[in-house]
Amino acid sequence: MENKRTFWLSYDLGIKGNYSSLYRWLDKQNAKECGDCIAYFEFICKTDNPRDEIKKDLIKNIEFHKTDRIYLIWKDETKDSNVGVFIIGNRKTAPWDGYCVTDTEQTIDM
Q1: Across the 110 residues of the chain, what is the mean pLDDT of every consecutive 10-residue run?
Q2: Could you give the dihedral angle defined by the CA atoms of residues 38, 71, 92 and 96, in that order, rounded to the nearest 10 degrees?
Q3: Strand pairing of 38-45 and 3-12?
Q4: How far apart are the C-alpha atoms of 69 and 10, rounded to whole Å?
Q5: Per-residue confidence (pLDDT) for residue 101, from 0 to 100
Q6: Other CB atoms within 10 A of residue 55 CB
Q7: Closest by alpha carbon to 45, among 61, 29, 59, 27?
Q8: Could you give the count of Cα atoms lying within 13 Å of 61 in the half-sphere of its Cβ?
Q9: Which long-range contacts link 75-83 to residues 24+ away (Cβ below 8 Å)?
Q10: So what's the pLDDT on residue 60?
Q11: Number of Cα atoms under 13 Å in the Cβ half of residue 89
C-alpha cells in the first residue's frame, strides 16, 4: 500500500550539523524551501506510520549529533487533523519563554 503524502520538516542541526547530507536528502525529495529551516516535500509511504518511515530514511542517510532536532508535521487523514512530532531530538525551552507578564505575578514592595 503505497501512498504519496505531504510533509513539513523543521530542522535545527546547530553550527556543526551535517547540513550537506540533510540538504542532499531534501533535494532527493524535491523539497520546497518554506523559510529558515523549514521544508515542504512529498514522500511515498509504504505503511501507515510515516513518522517511523521518514525517521528511518533520515537516519540511514544522515549522521545526526546529540543536539540535532528534526520536527515533522503532516495531516492525519484518519483524524482529519495535523500531527507534529520530533522524530530526532526533543523540544527545548523557547527563547520567548518568560517575556509575557501575567496577572498571577506578585509585586514585592521594598
Answers
A1: 89 95 98 97 92 96 96 88 94 89 63
A2: 40
A3: antiparallel
A4: 8
A5: 74
A6: 17
A7: 29
A8: 17
A9: 75/5, 75/6
A10: 97
A11: 19
Give the domain ranges of the chain.
3-88
**Amino acid sitting at position 3:** N
Question: Model's pTM, two decimal places?
Answer: 0.85
The domain defined by 3-88 folds into Alpha-Beta Plaits (3.30.70)
With a CB cutoff of 8 Å and minimum separation 6, the contacts of 71 are 9, 10, 11, 84, 85, 86, 87
Q: What is the DSSP string of 2-45?
A: -EEEEEEEEEE--TT--HHHHHHHHHHTT-EE-STTEEEEEEEE
Residue showing cell 545526526: 64
Nearest by Cα to 77 from 3, 10, 9, 8:
3
Residue whose entry in the numeric block shows the C-alpha cell 537516519: 59
